[in-house]
Amino acid sequence: MRTPHPRRRAQPLLPENDCRHHRPGTSKVSRFRPQVRKAFNSPFWPFVLATTSVGQEGLDFHTYCHAVMHWNLPANPVDMEQREGRVHRYKGHAVRRNVAQRHASELPNDPYGDPWSHLFEIARKGTADQSGLTPYWVYTADGGATIERHAPALPLSREADQLPALRNSLALYRMVFGQPRQDDLIEFLLRQLPRETLDNRLDQLRIDLTPREMPPPVALSNATAALNPGD
């Protein structure tokens, strides 16, 4: 007995023919690309956007998307970071979903106000993190949304072996400039150290990037007195 598969409607927004038969600068593609990007960054269709490596740099798709499907793997961690950075940005979709999940019931009855401004202000006041990353870049909720990475590598393929090495390189690459992704970093460290050893060395491995407190400004009258002690 054949099991029926669900059918989903699909429509190419940038036909391949347009790419072949029009010169650069005059093609329909150049006019359609901003429209496609604007449509994808909305709560309406299209819900899936397929792109070549052209879409991995300089474009933002985080407004209503928090998942990246790597049809093939890049050759280096920098390109991997660029791809996933398209959906991991300021007030991204995953962050907004978690903020709404935790604080939607606390919204004030203000029909003329911006609900997202109210939600982020409530979330900001409820966190002890003063780095500025929470809740605008990072915000979690029980069972909430996260940045999703999908790499459908076939078993025994070259990419099946390449993915773990690429994830290790990506964790180290982000750790160099002090912004490791927690899941990748913990997974990498657990492969290097036993859990008990890692728990004991967390304080040594932690890098505190909190800005130092500046000394209070010296009053002008005190500074003048210090420069002229004989007066």
Question: Care to describe what's here?
Answer:
The termini are far apart. The longest helix is centred in the last third of the chain and has 19 residues, at 158-176. Residues 16-22 have low confidence and may be disordered. Helix 3 packs across helix 6 and helix 4 crosses helix 5 (115-125). With 231 residues, this protein is an all-alpha fold. The protein has a two-stranded parallel ribbon. The protein is built from ten helices and two strands; from the N terminus they run ααβαααβααααα. The radius of gyration is 24 Å and the shape is globular.
Give the SSE map.
Layout: H1 16-21, H2 28-40, E1 67-69, H3 77-84, H4 93-103, H5 115-125, E2 148-150, H6 158-176, H7 182-192, H8 195-200, H9 202-205, H10 220-227
Parallel strand pairs: 1-2
Summed up, what is this model?
The chain is an all-alpha fold and 231 residues long. 42% of the residues lie in helices and 3% in strands. Helix 3 packs across helix 6 (158-176) and helix 4 crosses helix 5.
Coarse shape: globular
User: What is the number of strand segments?
Assistant: 2
The ordered string of helix (H) and strand (E) elements is: HHEHHHEHHHHH
Uncertain parts = 16-22
Strand order of the largest sheet: 1-2
In which range does the helix fraction lie? 40-55%
Strand-residue fraction?
Answer: under 5%
Distance between the termini: 103 Å
